[in-house]
Amino acid sequence: MDEVDFLVKKFQEEKDVKAYEKLYNMYHESMLGVIHNILQDEDLSKDILQEVFLKVWDNIESYSPKRGRFFTWLLNISRNAAIDKTRSKEYKDLKKNQNIDIFVHISQPEEREVDDQEKMLYANIKKLSEKCRKLIDLIFYKGYTQKETSEALEIPLGTVKTRSRSCLSSLKLSLNP
Q: 22-63: per-residue pLDDT in tens?
């Protein structure tokens, strides 16, 4: 029996805090990496990591070495918790708000220092039709899904998909004549 198996068994049978702490110290960095890869937000990733370790504390009896390694079990819990977070309304609203702040800067480059590429991108976006600018704003700068864009603009989903391809092609042509 290796050290991990010994610690897991001790934790499962006795809820041994020292074993739990050792397991945390052994795996928290890997788990944080998996969570951060999905969320791309350090503070939120740390919060989710803490939630994951609470789940581990509460559900340690559901782990069985017959079904896989402890590390794999932890990573699956971490990955699922991060994915669940990305699907939450709170997370989507947070990302939309962050993207709006970013868009304010991107849509108004004259108010801050920007490089030539960004100036050229902004100038070419301004040349697009109003329909294209709205679509690009919602999808690329505010983080809406195509379905959410369809609802916000009150147009069919198929139209959003076709228009986004068309608008991006137009933008690409204007950037690379």
A: 999 999 998 998 888 878 788 999 999 999 999 999 999 999
Domain span including residue 162: 115-175
- pTM for this structure? 0.53
- Residue 130 belongs to domain with CATH number: 1.10.10.10
Distance CA 9, CA 28 (A): 19
Residue 83 CA to residue 9 CA, distance in Å, equals 29
> Euclidean distance between the first and final Cα of the chain, in Å?
66
CA-to-CA separations, 115 to 1, 118, 155, 177, in angstroms, rounded: 59, 6, 35, 20
In residues, how long is the chain?
177
Give the integer Cα–Cα distance in Å for 123 and 80.
41
